[in-house]
Amino acid sequence: MPNNTKHLRIASRESALALWQSNHIKQQLELVHPGLSVEIVGMTTKGDKILDVSLSKIGGKGLFVKELETSLLAHETDIAVHSMKDVPMEFPEGLELAVICERETPFDAFVSNHYNSLGELPSGATVGTSSLRRQSQLSALRPDIEIKALRGNVNTRLAKLDRGEFDAIILAAAGLKRLGFDERIKIQINEKHSLPAAGQGAIGIECRSSDEAIKKLLAPLAHQTTELCVGAERAMNHRLNGGCQVPIAGYASLDKQQLTLTGLVASIDGKVILKSTKSTSIEQALPLKHITKLGTQVAEDLLAQGAQSLLDDVYND
Q: Most buried among 33, 136, 272, 297, using CB within 10 Å?
């Protein structure tokens, strides 16, 4: 453990899932650094407060990290724990992403009290999701169902399903697993039917760029395979200038020494789906800064297919 670092403060959103993630990091840090005490400082972000408007209308998922970053810059906390799918590519001056931890499943989950899969839903069934990415891919698979906006934390969304407001809802499987709701998952939707968001299922830790002692504390929590995969996904998203405001998806996987990334851009109604898949060897991907090339190549291919016009349609809506 670095000298003089005996207490660490984690900035965390106060949702059940965010607190689970922060407690997970707290436990990991205290395990690998005996003598270190870790405190969780909960705070409510703008993204948590505004629940009656789509994220795409109020500025995107970056709203979930701004207050946490403000506390880091004010030295009120030392690190911030994020879901990687919520983390913008650009960081405020003085802050950086220190590590990405081992990923839970990146896929979406189909949750319903009456149906076992998307295919079982009757025509006209109501499905809830907060994501334009999910909406576009669901619409392509099942244009006969009705998709309605669903905001709130995991417990709130499940409660709305249980009240009968939806026939089914789509959530990230990782969040359900982490909160002990494994039994609510009827089926995980694999990448062939619905590509996940870039970084989905992974936890990232942000800190001040100047805090070398803190970075040394965090280093043992880094997971190289996850950093490679999520790095490629985020590089693609960055080149496309993407966020939750647009239907962009990306999923990278490592098989032996081959890293493969599939990216997607779609129209919201699902009538246009553009995909691109490219691979590279681990030797070419390392060091991590070189992984951006794979993501950029996939993004450029999508742009060549006409992705920009789809993105412009959404941004100009």
A: 136
